[in-house]
């Protein structure tokens, strides 16, 4: 019996015979797992999934190339973003530090296209198509991230749960958390008296990623005890674990200089282990004790006291409690007169606590000890306040998280969603794009997620807000961030000439770079340039015939130098990239004069080795060897296939061993 797709089986369920029904049941019982499941076998798969090769074609007239520009660092790619991601996987794998996307929200209002059709609320497979659509793209995007890279994804509340499970599937064990953004002041759905005014930004990051946080100042570091090591800040000694949860860190602490004792809070035990308690628990078995101490990740409380890193607050003799008999102690506890926490006034000793006899006759001090964090114990670059998960309004009062508090999280601030429509209109003169994100939101996220030399990718670029955010950040801190924006034309049969990528995204970035309008705050030229690329899809078997030199020049520049050329006009030799002692070039034809020109390149560029892409690499290698030129030669066809069609790909690495690009 020929193998049938699940979709075919579902359509003909009544006519299935016993073996077919058994197979369908087995499939359904065995392939489902805990987590997200969608009917990927029952829907028409994304038409963008194919086995052809995607090649970039530079469009100089649509690019922005100011006078004096040597190459394009920023890229705008027109086309289906699945194809754009396939191209980028072949050119930028492991090079993208930050990805931000604002994908379609699957609202049912025909706000996105799947297989050339708008998906509406009544589509039977609406959610499955949306998940499949994003799954294929996120899987490609995952391979683009650096080892410390991060992806930030905007989503509405309705689809957050589905997308989060999908992200868990694509980025396992990489969930960092989420941020909450208030998009508007009032909701418009009052049927349930429930106001939908928030969206979310999901954060999934590789192991090496950290948000930038905010540098803390020294004003909270003081030196009340005249410590010779300088200023310090008091840090809590307790953890959020109870006596029941962590009995091994429930013990008394003594100030060795005064002899005063401090009880442990049974509801919040000490943060550090005690060597004395370890010895007691292990019955003084020295081998086991040393093994336990060796497994600790921090000093014991005894070591901290010996290093004078525990601060015992001043305590006068009148504040000291002492109970001569156990009955005196029990009476004090019963009458609420026993030791308490200074601020909360909750009791530190209770009748049901272990070792209550220990406290009979002991001088018990008021106050609580703390750990000293010396200002000199960390480099200033590591003394940072973290990013909080709340994105507040521009003028919103956030009493609990004031931004000038060094020990509180950084609070991002963003304008409401409606402001973004006016931002686009101020630049382009019309309401050119529905539901854009405000520049303050994306700029705030990138300010926390990027460093000055990062590449930022947005493969649902829309109106180009991410690109503008990158430009404005660079203008503020002198950074060299670069953007890659992927956008489709959104042309339809009714609007065949529509080109969102060229006329909205690219045009917006062009105007931002050169300055626009005459309104305050909108006329500053941010500077910059970008290459505008279109995509050509060619069958792998036809690459040798249909792949052009201009395809190879653009692709190799993207792959080897993360740039795009200024032009791809016919030339004997195209410069691709230059390293410390090597030069990579492409020559479309091997003629005697071309070989002579290649042989002259090492001395002209001050290098010792060449990497040459050409139609006949073996023949050219011999010709250059005869001229005494140290060169590696590669096939242009192989280079065009690399990273896209694995069966036809040969390993190509133009960077000589031991060199760096």
UniProtKB/TrEMBL annotation:
InterPro entries: DNA_methylase_N4/N6, DNA_methylase_N6_adenine_CS, N4/N6-MTase_EcoPI_Mod-like, SAM-dependent_MTases_sf
Single GO MF annotation: N-methyltransferase activity
GO BP: any one term: methylation
Domain DNA methylase N-4/N-6: from-to ranges: 96-483
Superkingdom of this protein's organism: Bacteria
Catalytic activity entry: a 2'-deoxyadenosine in DNA + S-adenosyl-L-methionine = an N(6)-methyl-2'-deoxyadenosine in DNA + S-adenosyl-L-homocysteine + H(+)
Keywords: Methyltransferase, S-adenosyl-L-methionine, Transferase
Pfam hit, one: N6_N4_Mtase
Keyword S-adenosyl-L-methionine: yes
Region of interest: Disordered: 216-238
UniProt keyword Repressor, yes or no: no
Enzyme Commission (EC) number: 2.1.1.72
Family of this protein: Belongs to the N(4)/N(6)-methyltransferase family.
Protein name per Swiss-Prot or TrEMBL: site-specific DNA-methyltransferase (adenine-specific)
């Amino acid at each position: 019996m020929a193998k049938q797709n699940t979709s075919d089986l579902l359509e003909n369920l009544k006519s299935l015979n016993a073996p077919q029904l058994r197979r369908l049941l087995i499939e359904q019982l065995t392939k489902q797992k805990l987590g997200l499941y969608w009917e990927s076998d029952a829907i028409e798969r994304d038409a963008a999934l194919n086995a052809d090769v995607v090649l970039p074609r530079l469009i100089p007239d649509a690019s922005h190339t100011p006078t004096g520009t040597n190459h394009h660092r920023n890229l705008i790619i027109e086309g289906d973003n699945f194809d754009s991601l396939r191209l980028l996987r072949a050119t930028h794998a492991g090079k993208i530090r930050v990805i931000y996307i604002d994908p379609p929200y699957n609202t049912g209002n025909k706000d996105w296209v799947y297989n050339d059709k708008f998906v509406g609320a009544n589509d039977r497979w609406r959610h499955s198509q949306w998940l499949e659509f994003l799954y294929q793209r996120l899987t490609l995007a995952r391979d683009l991230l650096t080892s410390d890279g991060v992806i930030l994804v905007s989503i509405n509340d309705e689809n957050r749960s589905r997308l989060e499970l999908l992200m868990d599937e694509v980025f396992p064990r990489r969930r960092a958390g989420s941020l909450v953004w208030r998009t508007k002041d009032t909701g418009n759905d009052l049927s349930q008296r429930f106001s939908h005014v928030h969206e979310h930004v999901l954060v999934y990051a590789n192991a090496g990623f950290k948000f930038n946080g905010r540098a803390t100042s020294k004003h909270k570091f003081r030196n009340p005890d005249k410590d010779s090591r300088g200023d310090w800040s008091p840090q809590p000694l307790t953890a959020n674990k109870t006596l029941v949860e962590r009995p091994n860190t429930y013990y008394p602490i003594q100030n060795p200089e005064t002899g005063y004792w401090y009880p442990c809070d049974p509801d919040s035990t000490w943060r550090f282990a005690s060597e004395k308690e370890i010895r007691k628990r292990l019955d003084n078995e020295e081998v086991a004790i040393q093994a336990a101490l060796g497994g600790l990740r921090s000093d014991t409380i005894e070591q901290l006291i010996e290093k004078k890193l525990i601060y015992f607050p001043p305590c006068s003799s009148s504040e000291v409690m002492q109970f001569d008999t156990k009955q005196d102690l029990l009476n004090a506890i019963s009458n609420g007169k026993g030791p308490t926490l200074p601020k909360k006034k909750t009791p530190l000793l209770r009748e049901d606590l272990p070792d209550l006899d220990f406290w009979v006759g002991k001088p018990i001090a008021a106050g609580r000890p703390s750990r000293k964090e010396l200002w000199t114990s960390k480099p200033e670059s590591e003394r940072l306040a973290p990013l909080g998960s709340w994105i507040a309004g521009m003028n919103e009062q956030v009493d609990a998280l004031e931004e000038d508090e060094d020990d509180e999280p950084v609070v991002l601030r963003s304008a409401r969603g409606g402001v973004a429509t006016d931002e686009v209109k101020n630049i382009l003169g019309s309401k050119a794009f529905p539901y854009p994100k405000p520049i303050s939101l994306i700029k705030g996220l990138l300010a926390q997620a990027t460093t000055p030399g990062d590449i930022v990718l947005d493969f649902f670029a829309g109106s180009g807000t991410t690109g503008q955010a990158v430009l404005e950040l660079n203008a503020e801190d002198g950074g060299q961030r670069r953007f890659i924006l992927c956008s489709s034309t959104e042309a339809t049969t009714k609007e065949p000439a529509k080109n969102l990528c060229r006329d909205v995204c690219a045009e917006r970035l062009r105007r931002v770079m050169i300055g626009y309008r005459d309104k305050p705050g909108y006329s500053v030229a941010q500077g910059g340039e970008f290459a505008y690329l279109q995509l050509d899809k060619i069958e792998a078997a036809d690459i040798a015939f249909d792949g052009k030199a201009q395809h190879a020049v653009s692709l190799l520049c993207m792959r080897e130098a993360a740039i795009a050329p200024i032009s791809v006009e016919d030339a004997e030799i195209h410069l691709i990239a230059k390293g410390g002692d090597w030069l990579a070039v492409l020559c479309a034809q091997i003629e005697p004069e071309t070989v002579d020109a290649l042989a002259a390149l090492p001395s002209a560029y001050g290098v010792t080795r060449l990497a040459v892409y050409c139609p006949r690499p073996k023949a050219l290698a011999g010709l250059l060897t005869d001229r005494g030129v140290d060169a590696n030669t590669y096939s242009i066809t192989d280079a065009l296939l690399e990273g896209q069609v694995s069966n036809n790909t040969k390993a190509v690495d133009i960077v000589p061993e031991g060199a760096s690009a």
